[in-house]
Amino acid sequence: MKTHNSVSRLELANITKQYPGCLANDNISLTLMPGEIHALLGENGAGKSTLVKTIYGVVAPDKGDIIWDGREVSIKSPSIARDLGIGMVFQHFSLFETLTVSQNIELCLSKAQLNNIGDLADRIKKLSAEYGLNVDPSRYIHSLSIGERQRVEIMRCLVQSVKLLILDEPTSVLTPQEVSGLFDVLRTLSKEGCSILFISHKLHEVTEICHKATILRGGKVVDTCIPNEETPATIAKMMVGELAEQEAGYIKREGTNVIFSVTNLSLPSKHPFGTALKDINLTLKAGEILGIAGVAGNGQDELMAIISGEDARNVKQAISLNNLDIGHLHAGERRKLGMAYVPEERLGRGAVPDMSLTENTLLTHSDGFVKNGLVQWQSIKNYTQTLITKYKVKCHGEFSEAKSLSGGNLQKFIMGREIGQNPKVLICAHPTWGVDVGAALAIHQALLELRDQGAAILLISEDIDELFLLADRMAAVCNGHLSPLVKTEHTNIDQIGQWMAGTFINNTSVCAQEQEAKA
Ligand SMILES: Nc1ncnc2c1ncn2[C@@H]1O[C@H](COP(=O)(O)OP(=O)(O)OP(=O)(O)O)[C@@H](O)[C@H]1O
């Protein structure tokens, strides 16, 4: 057993991991000190998730050493990692939907840890208050939004008093207020001596909170830096090898005719802790992007589910496309009429993990690729290849299983697949979740191109900056209510922030009519 005099919390030496046809990690070395917040940066597919999964015992490296608190260790499973004091919050959460928050957290604790903690629900409530996480131990996971689930994952690590917390893109689905809350938590943990390894594509956040950064490209360490001595542009250059194009602002458009509308839609929640939709009215015009802001869990999931038909309850007259009631049609029939969707959850809802990219393309394009009852496999393979090329999806080929793609690459594929249907109406949640700066730019431009061809786009996002960048009109949801719809140039972050907090609710209908008339 090797021992070291260094006081480092974690040292990785020459970590190498080969997947079939892909060297995901190539001799990676890095050191992390106690209390250090360290960013791991790189384009989609650079090898970040593979490296952190190695530290957490999910992926077995082919080569290399891991030294923990000065001692060489072999981390063969997440339970060994947790025993060492390593906690991880994944990009795709690993919570059981039919269990409560408490039950989920209990599952990853040993008997000894449980005895130490005493009453787990009390401990969760205490930590929740201490760190401002707002996690209710009795809620079922299936009733929680993505943002809330992430807080449960963080709580799961806090309960175990971690010494190293790994966060894989923790802020991608959080509102600005939630991000600053999370950063307060991270700074407190850092002061207490907990090290943090932080994967992010949001470079301004990295410059704000991280003490050090390691940059990966093609599985190798290509640079290291002290983020607060850099700018997002100089870090982006280290990542991609050239100066990334900056997105200064895009031309706003007036939509033409209303092609999609939701009218007086009130709907109780299917889940006891879900959000009921309350008298939702919205119109979507051809050739415009309507952005809906909101803190996770305020009805966005329910709205998306009822619009897409995933929630199969009959709301015939409440939803219409080109003056045709469609609220009673099933999801496939709505797609045939020209609707397309990018759901919030890419693995499981946006794509079937065990199916190849070709099969996943077929799932939402069945019309064009089935003739006389036969699937036209060659055509669909060719088409999938064009999507992979156009959206620069890093994978082995159209036969790759969806689950083998890095998060950002799968997101690019799903966006490309849906945009590629040339829909009349695209309903899209978090279009650039986990996508690197270069690919986010490409997705933004593809959405604007689709809009300019006359499609109507409903963009549901918690990323206010992205909404201001792309949306022609905006609104916010709060507790199942939709705010007035306003032109983006007639509003500002303060007003949208207040609407997200529900200040519009008492006089919604009057306001909405006024604002619609103005818009
Ligand atoms: N199980 C697997 N089988 C085959 N290839 C894989 C597997 N998991 C990851 N890869 C490949 O390894 C490479 C690195 O993936 P990884 O998920 O580590 O990237 P990443 O930097 O985290 O990307 P992102 O920013 O998109 O999350 C990618 O090319 C990916 O397709």
Give an account of the 3D structure.
It is found in: Cell membrane. The chain has 519 residues and is an alpha/beta fold. It starts with 9 loop residues before the first strand and ends with a helix. The longest helix is centred in the middle third of the chain and has 16 residues, at 176-191. It contains 19 helices and 23 strands. Strands 13, 16, 19, 20, 21, 22 and 23 form a seven-stranded mixed beta sheet that branches. Strands 6-7-8-3-9-10 form a six-stranded mixed beta sheet, sandwiched between helices. Strands 2-1-4-5 form a four-stranded antiparallel beta sheet, covered by helices on one side. Helix 8 crosses helix 9, helix 12 (357-364) packs across helix 14 (377-390) and helix 15 (407-419) runs parallel beside helix 16. The site of adenosine-5'-triphosphate has 20 residues, from strand 2, helix 1 and helix 15. Residues 19, 22, 24, 42, 44-50, 394-395, 404-409, 434 line the site of adenosine-5'-triphosphate.
